[in-house]
Amino acid sequence: MKKRTLFIFVARMAPVAILLLTTRPAQADIVSLTPSAAVVTEGDTFDLDLTAVGIGLGAYDLTIRYDPLLVAVDEALVTFDTHLGGPLNSLTFTSAGLDTLELGEVSFLTDPADLAALQPGTGYALAHISVRALQAGIASFYFLATPYTVTSDYAGVDVAGVVFQGTSVEIDSPMDIPSVPEPLSGILLLTIVGWLLLAKWRRCSASKTKPASR
Known about the structure:
Blueprint: H1 2-22, E1 30-35, E2 39-41, E3 45-53, E4 59-65, E5 71-73, E6 79-80, E7 90-96, E8 100-107, H2 112-118, E9 124-133, E10 137-143, E11 150-152, E12 163-165, E13 167-172, H3 186-209
Parallel strand pairs: 1-12, 2-13
Antiparallel strand pairs: 1-3, 3-9, 4-8, 4-10, 4-11, 5-9, 6-9, 7-8, 10-13
């Protein structure tokens, strides 16, 4: 009887043990900003990618803050990626403030498997923001918590514990271009040529008027 009880216990615990041994450590849910270049020059335009890692999203509403003296962001130039079913199966929106950019997307896909197929766990892009560098400095971009901030899963349930990672870009001044001397003007050139001819004429005149030696 004891052997049978032990057998049943082992049989029931075996699947649990296998699951514990094969389960990988949980990956952190991260939403981050990644620039296309770490260093740019005044007047350059670069992309700022909004990316999700380790998190399955069905909707989000996020606000990004930046320094408008260093960079300019045009909400009309924001492009959304396809990992929430866009452009046909999602609703996107943007709203720009003096120093903020709010952007969000809601997926119309109702089957979690369809969304999961679009979102690799290694990370996927949500949106791409075009940024123009205005003047030299360190331009920082970070997430601003607002009453409208949302990150929800396929079922519309808020995802807790999401780590939001901002970024920064160094903006350099253009390198000083050595000035090229301007070509001599025509008047100056004629003046120099005239002085040379006059000096030659004087030397010739002096040699002609010099008395011959006996």
